[in-house]
Structure formats: C-alpha cells, structure tokens
Specification:
The complex is a heterodimer. Chain A is mainly alpha-helical. In chain A, helix 1 packs across helix 2. Chain B has twelve helices and 16 strands. Classes of the chains: A mainly alpha, B alpha/beta.
Chain lengths: 87, 407
C-alpha cells in the first residue's frame, strides 16, 4: 500500500472530533465539542463497530498500525489523542 | 375465530411522492416518477430509466449517527417506518418492547453501499473497507435498523421473495399477531439503482430498454416489453384489532382479510402456473367469493407471457371485464421487495377514499379481457381489494383487504 507521506502529523482534538463525525455521526442528545474530550466513547453513543470504523480511519490518516480493539468504549477521545501522538 | 388484524398506519417512500399525501395526490393525478437514471451514469447501459425517489436528502430525515452505516434504501426504509408509526400514533418506547416486532421484505440488500466498499477493497485495500459493511449490505438490515431505532424487540424477521415479499411480510405479521404479538411493522422498501444492482437486474432479462418514460413500462399493452425498476416502498403498522381498540386507536385503514401463496412448478415441467391458486386461496381465506371483490391491484409484469398468465387468472376468477383492474406501479416502476407493500398501502387508500387510481400510459390489449382503469381515477364504492404480486423465481402471493366498516 502506498503512502503519500511518511511524516506522521500530530493529531489535534478537532481532527479526532471531525473523524468521529464523519465515520460514526453524532447521537441526537450529544454535543461533540471540547467538553466531550473527557467523556468515554460508550457514553458518547459509540458502539464497537463505530470504534472499529474510527480506528481504521485513524490508521489511514495518521499512518499508524492499530489493533482492532485499540479503542475501547471505556476510553475517552483524549486517551486516543495521546495514544496516537505518543507513537 | 381468528384474531382480526388491521392496518392502523403506514409510511410511503415512492418515486412519485415522499409521504402518503404527496404519493396519493400524484397517483390520483397520474403523475409518474419514472425518468432517466440520475444516481449513476447509465448512458452506456441498455436500460436507462428508473423510478427514483427524487428530492430525498437523508440528513434532513435521519440522525447523523445513522448516515455512515446505512445504504440509501435503508435510509428510505427508516423514514417509511417512522412515518408509519407516526401515522398509527404509536410510540414504541411507551409499550412492552417485546410485544412489537418488525418483518421486512428484501430482494438484494444494500447494493450501493456494498459496491462502494468492494471498490474500496480492490482499489485501496482492506483497511479502506467500512466496518459497517459487516451489516449495511445485508438483506436483513432494514428489519434490524428499524428494530434498533424504535426499540421493537418482539418476533422479527425478513422475507426474500422478490416482488411477492411485500405481501408475504404482512402475512407473516398476521401470523405473529395471531400467536400473541400485539403489533408488527411489516412491508418493504427496496432499491439498488447502482451499477452493481443494475447489471444484476439486467441479467434477469426483464428490464425495458425503451428510453421514453411514457412507453417504457406498459403492462397488459400489446407493446409490453419489460419493466422499469424503481426504489422505495411502504412500511405498515399491523395490530390485533382488539389491542388497537384497547389503546384507543381508530378502526384503521382496513383489515388483512385474506392471504394466499403458491409456488410455480419447475420451469419446463409443463405444470400449470400457480398464480390462480394463490388468488383463490386469498379470497377463500377472507371468507369471500370472487363477486365480493371490488378491485384488483395487478402485478403487471409487462412481459407478454406473464401478462397473459395474470390476465387469464383474473378472467378465470371473475369473468372477462367483470372487475376493475389497475396497475398504479406504472407510475413508480417495479420496486421489487417494496412493490407489493406500496400496492397494499395504495389499495387501503383506495378503500378509504372510494377511488381507484389509474394505470398510466397503457392502451389495454383487448385480448386480455380486462377492465383496466386507465388515464384517470375511477370513483367506485370499494369495500374490498385483491392485491396480486409475483416474484421472479416462482413466487405468487395474493392478499385481500377489507374496509373497517364492512363486515
């Protein structure tokens, strides 16, 4: 698989929230803003398939290899940002 | 005495109208939804017309959470189900979630979604395939999504019998209600207007190759040469009449009075077509005789040999020219698993208003001996309707609906 760039960009909160919106949408009663960064994915309304979809998008966007269960429903968006940026 | 099962609401997504009011006014006006395919470039395909639900913006109707995980036809089905529940004044959250089921018909599943993900697989690799491909293409997906969205956890299922499916799901819903489930959503919304779906339909050999929307789908016409495919359908709310009365629902649109189904003999075996048997079973199941039927909503294959079988079945049962016959799907194209469900909803509107919608564009071939309602709607006292549906592969189903006040 070809990659356009080998440099790994740093992920911002806005990057992740954008990916969540695109890959899995937003539940009716949720506001996906900075306050959501410390709320776990389960409480934000994302199920395991939604998180799998988000994981695949992160791999493609940030050129990282992640296990299918790298993101759990008990994780928060901030957990994911630090996981990606620590690689 | 079997439990009486009634239709207390329905939702329509049709090529000539989104929602019952728009659909019914277009249908009575003879307004067609058939036009050039717009959803992909069909210019180099031999068939280039379709009945598309135009002006449907999914984001206006559904939460964003559902958009990445749904095929176009599932979005239409979710909207139809929501309209149906609202029409019946049912909020599933209020009731016992195990007392409400969902049964939908399907012919193919989410082909447009599936095509896109297969293209992602072969062009870009497995990491580019949506995780939602795990269910979004699947033929049972509409039942699952409707069930999850509305918290309806009662007996559920999916029926795959092509165009007969819309009636077969309602029959299955009636069985479930007679076994004790209070309410079942049934019907079908279908569509696969994408290159992958298109070539699969072309392989069936029944698609019209005509480019003129006014001449492409002409059942019971000497010029009949196949059908135009469409998308959409209807979802109906079926209830035990007594349970509906207990919750204060009105009499509903009508009763599912009779149903019959029969499978064709193996091709080439010389056996007689099974369609007449399905129609006889339905009328008998309703406790009626043919003279009691006020209108027939025909399958209308627009393949001469199939039109002949259906016309013969109708004239054998009723006598030549003795019952009004109509094919409102001349305005939508054939909607596969959605087709007969939409015909059923249309028949219920016909009972409600005492007006038979027309068959458009068709000049009836006199040799068929049918009293086809053409050009404009016909006002008539309609107490009962017989809906006929055939699915490719030998499926034949028929259903009788009766006005609520007609015992």
């Amino acid at each position: 698989m070809s990659q356009e760039s080998t440099a790994t960009p740093r992920m911002t909160a806005e990057d992740l929230l954008g990916i969540l919106r695109t890959c899995a949408g937003v539940a009716d009663d949720i506001v996906l803003d900075d306050k959501a960064l410390d709320t776990d994915f389960g409480s934000l309304g994302y199920d395991s398939i939604a998180l799998l979809e988000v994981t695949a998008n992160l791999e493609r966007t940030f050129h990282v290899d992640l296990d299918d269960d790298a993101i759990k429903a008990s994780d928060t968006p901030r957990d994911v940002i630090s996981m990606i940026n620590s690689r | 005495m079997n439990t009486s099962v009634i239709v207390t609401g329905f939702g329509v997504t049709a090529p000539n109208g989104l929602g019952t009011r728009d659909y019914w006014s277009a249908t009575l006006a003879g307004r067609s939804g058939i036009d050039r395919v717009s959803r992909f470039d069909a210019g180099r395909y031999p068939s280039r017309l379709a009945g598309e639900v135009s002006g449907f913006a999914a984001a206006d109707h559904l939460p964003s959470r559902l958009l990445p995980q749904t095929d176009h036809m599932t979005r239409l089905a979710l909207v139809a189900a929501e309209l149906a529940l609202a029409d019946a004044n049912v909020s599933p959250g209020d009731a016992d979630s195990y007392g409400m089921g969902v049964v939908t018909a399907s012919s193919a599943g989410g082909f447009e979604f599936g095509q896109r993900e297969l293209q992602n697989l072969w062009r870009h690799g497995s990491r580019h395939v949506s995780a939602y491909q795990s269910f979004a293409w699947f033929y049972a997906v509409n039942t699952g999504q409707i069930s999850i969205r509305h918290g309806m956890r009662g007996p559920s299922g999916v029926v795959v019998t092509d165009q007969a499916g819309g009636l077969d799901t309602v029959a299955q819903a009636r069985r479930l209600i007679r076994k004790g489930t209070d309410l079942v959503l049934a019907g079908g919304v279908d569509g696969s207007i994408c290159p992958w779906g298109w070539v699969a339909q072309m392989a069936g050999g029944r698609l019209s190759r005509c480019d003129d929307p006014g001449r492409a789908y002409l059942p019971f016409d000497a010029r009949a040469a196949g059908h135009v495919p469409g998308e959409g359908g209807a979802i109906l709310v079926l209830e035990d009449a007594e349970a509906a009365a207990r919750r204060g629902a009105g009499p509903g649109y009508g009763e599912i009075a009779g149903y019959g189904t029969a499978f064709d003999p193996r091709p080439g075996s010389g056996g007689a077509p099974a369609l007449p048997r399905a129609m006889e079973l339905a009328v008998r199941d309703a406790g009626l005789s043919p003279g009691d039927i006020d209108v027939v909503f025909a399958d209308g294959a627009a393949v001469p040999a199939l039109d002949r079988i259906e016309a013969d079945a109708i004239t054998a049962m009723f006598g030549a020219g003795r019952v009004p016959v109509t094919v409102p799907k001349t305005m939508t194209g054939r909607l596969y698993a959605g087709g007969a469900a939409l015909d059923l909803a249309t028949a219920l509107l016909c009972l409600r208003d005492g007006v038979i919608p027309p068959t458009i564009n068709v000049t009836p071939e006199a040799a068929y001996g049918l009293d086809l309602v053409t050009r404009r709607p016909r006002t008539a006292p309609v107490r009962t309707a017989l809906i006929v549906a055939r699915g490719e592969g030998g499926f034949n189903s028929a259903m009788v609906v009766r006005r609520p006040d007609d015992e």
